[in-house]
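Budget justification aside, the reviewers requested a transparent look at the raw inputs and outputs of the sequence design task funded under Objective 1. We therefore reproduce one unedited record. The lines immediately below are the C-alpha coordinates for a 181-residue chain.
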Protein backbone atom coordinates (compact mmCIF):
# COMPACT_ATOMS: atom_id res chain seq x y z
CA UNK A 1 0.00 0.00 0.00
CA UNK A 2 1.36 3.41 -0.97
CA UNK A 3 2.17 5.93 1.75
CA UNK A 4 -0.01 9.03 1.66
CA UNK A 5 1.77 12.31 1.04
CA UNK A 6 1.62 15.10 3.58
CA UNK A 7 -0.46 17.15 1.13
CA UNK A 8 -3.02 14.36 0.73
CA UNK A 9 -3.27 13.89 4.49
CA UNK A 10 -3.49 17.65 5.00
CA UNK A 11 -6.31 18.00 2.49
CA UNK A 12 -8.31 15.14 4.02
CA UNK A 13 -8.10 16.37 7.61
CA UNK A 14 -8.65 19.99 6.54
CA UNK A 15 -11.74 19.10 4.53
CA UNK A 16 -13.20 17.12 7.42
CA UNK A 17 -12.55 20.00 9.82
CA UNK A 18 -13.98 22.53 7.38
CA UNK A 19 -17.12 20.44 6.95
CA UNK A 20 -17.59 20.62 10.72
CA UNK A 21 -16.90 24.35 11.13
CA UNK A 22 -18.45 25.83 7.99
CA UNK A 23 -22.14 25.10 8.76
CA UNK A 24 -21.67 26.43 12.30
CA UNK A 25 -19.99 29.62 11.08
CA UNK A 26 -16.86 28.97 13.13
CA UNK A 27 -14.40 28.55 10.25
CA UNK A 28 -12.66 31.89 10.83
CA UNK A 29 -12.40 31.41 14.60
CA UNK A 30 -11.02 27.90 14.14
CA UNK A 31 -8.50 29.19 11.61
CA UNK A 32 -7.38 31.87 14.06
CA UNK A 33 -6.80 29.19 16.73
CA UNK A 34 -4.87 27.00 14.31
CA UNK A 35 -2.72 29.92 13.12
CA UNK A 36 -1.87 30.79 16.73
CA UNK A 37 -0.72 27.22 17.32
CA UNK A 38 1.14 27.21 13.98
CA UNK A 39 3.01 30.31 15.19
CA UNK A 40 4.11 28.41 18.29
CA UNK A 41 5.52 25.67 16.06
CA UNK A 42 7.26 28.29 13.87
CA UNK A 43 8.82 29.98 16.88
CA UNK A 44 9.92 26.63 18.35
CA UNK A 45 11.28 24.53 15.47
CA UNK A 46 12.31 21.68 17.79
CA UNK A 47 8.76 21.23 19.04
CA UNK A 48 7.75 18.95 16.16
CA UNK A 49 10.88 16.87 16.69
CA UNK A 50 9.90 16.36 20.32
CA UNK A 51 6.36 15.30 19.39
CA UNK A 52 7.61 12.81 16.80
CA UNK A 53 10.61 11.49 18.73
CA UNK A 54 10.68 7.84 19.70
CA UNK A 55 13.00 8.73 22.60
CA UNK A 56 10.42 10.85 24.43
CA UNK A 57 7.86 8.95 26.55
CA UNK A 58 4.26 9.05 25.25
CA UNK A 59 2.83 10.63 28.43
CA UNK A 60 5.31 13.52 28.12
CA UNK A 61 4.38 14.11 24.49
CA UNK A 62 0.67 13.97 25.30
CA UNK A 63 1.16 16.45 28.16
CA UNK A 64 2.99 18.79 25.79
CA UNK A 65 0.19 18.49 23.25
CA UNK A 66 -2.41 19.25 25.95
CA UNK A 67 -0.48 22.36 27.02
CA UNK A 68 -0.36 23.54 23.39
CA UNK A 69 -4.12 23.28 23.01
CA UNK A 70 -5.28 24.17 26.53
CA UNK A 71 -6.84 27.47 25.40
CA UNK A 72 -8.22 26.06 22.14
CA UNK A 73 -11.80 25.08 21.42
CA UNK A 74 -12.91 21.51 22.00
CA UNK A 75 -12.94 20.92 18.25
CA UNK A 76 -9.31 22.00 17.81
CA UNK A 77 -8.29 19.96 20.85
CA UNK A 78 -10.05 16.94 19.36
CA UNK A 79 -8.33 17.51 16.01
CA UNK A 80 -4.92 17.52 17.68
CA UNK A 81 -5.75 14.41 19.67
CA UNK A 82 -6.94 12.62 16.55
CA UNK A 83 -3.92 13.67 14.49
CA UNK A 84 -1.60 12.55 17.27
CA UNK A 85 -3.37 9.22 17.81
CA UNK A 86 -3.22 8.49 14.07
CA UNK A 87 0.51 9.28 14.07
CA UNK A 88 0.00 12.21 11.70
CA UNK A 89 1.32 14.97 13.95
CA UNK A 90 4.15 15.67 11.50
CA UNK A 91 1.45 16.52 8.93
CA UNK A 92 -0.08 19.17 11.19
CA UNK A 93 1.51 22.17 9.38
CA UNK A 94 0.05 20.90 6.08
CA UNK A 95 -3.36 20.33 7.68
CA UNK A 96 -3.38 23.92 8.93
CA UNK A 97 -2.20 25.22 5.55
CA UNK A 98 -4.89 23.28 3.68
CA UNK A 99 -7.56 24.41 6.14
CA UNK A 100 -6.51 28.02 5.52
CA UNK A 101 -6.91 27.44 1.78
CA UNK A 102 -10.51 26.26 2.33
CA UNK A 103 -11.40 29.16 4.63
CA UNK A 104 -9.78 31.68 2.26
CA UNK A 105 -11.74 30.20 -0.66
CA UNK A 106 -14.97 30.54 1.33
CA UNK A 107 -14.10 34.18 2.16
CA UNK A 108 -12.98 34.90 -1.43
CA UNK A 109 -9.44 35.66 -0.30
CA UNK A 110 -6.53 34.86 -2.59
CA UNK A 111 -2.95 34.78 -1.37
CA UNK A 112 -0.54 35.43 -4.22
CA UNK A 113 3.18 34.81 -4.00
CA UNK A 114 4.63 37.43 -6.32
CA UNK A 115 8.29 37.17 -7.31
CA UNK A 116 9.97 40.23 -8.81
CA UNK A 117 13.55 41.34 -9.43
CA UNK A 118 13.05 44.43 -7.25
CA UNK A 119 10.48 45.11 -4.51
CA UNK A 120 7.06 46.34 -5.62
CA UNK A 121 6.10 49.82 -4.49
CA UNK A 122 2.65 50.58 -3.05
CA UNK A 123 1.19 51.74 -6.37
CA UNK A 124 2.40 48.61 -8.19
CA UNK A 125 1.07 46.40 -5.40
CA UNK A 126 -2.34 48.11 -5.56
CA UNK A 127 -2.56 47.76 -9.39
CA UNK A 128 -1.50 44.12 -9.24
CA UNK A 129 -3.99 43.45 -6.45
CA UNK A 130 -6.83 44.93 -8.53
CA UNK A 131 -5.88 42.81 -11.55
CA UNK A 132 -5.65 39.65 -9.44
CA UNK A 133 -9.02 40.37 -7.81
CA UNK A 134 -10.59 40.43 -11.27
CA UNK A 135 -8.65 37.39 -12.51
CA UNK A 136 -9.46 35.20 -9.49
CA UNK A 137 -12.89 36.75 -8.74
CA UNK A 138 -11.74 37.53 -5.21
CA UNK A 139 -12.84 40.10 -2.67
CA UNK A 140 -9.37 40.35 -1.16
CA UNK A 141 -5.89 39.63 -2.49
CA UNK A 142 -2.95 39.22 -0.14
CA UNK A 143 0.33 39.77 -1.95
CA UNK A 144 3.50 38.22 -0.60
CA UNK A 145 6.32 39.89 -2.54
CA UNK A 146 9.52 37.86 -2.85
CA UNK A 147 12.51 39.55 -4.43
CA UNK A 148 14.77 37.40 -6.63
CA UNK A 149 17.27 39.32 -8.80
CA UNK A 150 17.92 36.13 -10.83
CA UNK A 151 14.62 36.56 -12.67
CA UNK A 152 16.13 39.71 -14.26
CA UNK A 153 12.75 41.41 -14.70
CA UNK A 154 9.04 40.79 -15.07
CA UNK A 155 6.86 39.05 -12.56
CA UNK A 156 5.98 35.51 -11.49
CA UNK A 157 2.68 34.99 -9.68
CA UNK A 158 1.68 31.82 -7.83
CA UNK A 159 -1.91 31.75 -6.59
CA UNK A 160 -4.78 29.25 -6.38
CA UNK A 161 -2.69 26.40 -7.78
CA UNK A 162 -1.78 28.48 -10.83
CA UNK A 163 1.53 29.93 -11.94
CA UNK A 164 1.69 32.97 -14.19
CA UNK A 165 5.30 33.40 -15.26
CA UNK A 166 6.17 36.55 -17.16
CA UNK A 167 9.78 36.74 -16.05
CA UNK A 168 12.56 37.61 -18.42
CA UNK A 169 14.64 34.65 -17.21
CA UNK A 170 11.86 32.24 -18.22
CA UNK A 171 11.43 33.93 -21.59
CA UNK A 172 15.18 33.67 -22.22
CA UNK A 173 15.15 30.01 -21.20
CA UNK A 174 12.27 29.36 -23.61
CA UNK A 175 14.18 31.07 -26.44
CA UNK A 176 17.30 29.03 -25.60
CA UNK A 177 15.25 25.84 -25.65
CA UNK A 178 13.62 26.65 -28.99
CA UNK A 179 17.02 27.39 -30.56
CA UNK A 180 18.50 24.08 -29.38
CA UNK A 181 15.47 21.99 -30.47
Amino acid sequence: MAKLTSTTVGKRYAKALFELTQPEGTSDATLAELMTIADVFSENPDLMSVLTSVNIPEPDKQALLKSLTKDASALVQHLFDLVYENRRIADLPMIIQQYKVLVDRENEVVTAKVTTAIPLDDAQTARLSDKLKALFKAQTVVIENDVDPKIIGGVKIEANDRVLDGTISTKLANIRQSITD
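The mean pLDDT is 93. The helical segments are 6-21, 27-43, 46-52, 58-68, 74-85, 92-106, 122-136, 168-180. Computational costs for records of this kind are itemized in the attached budget.
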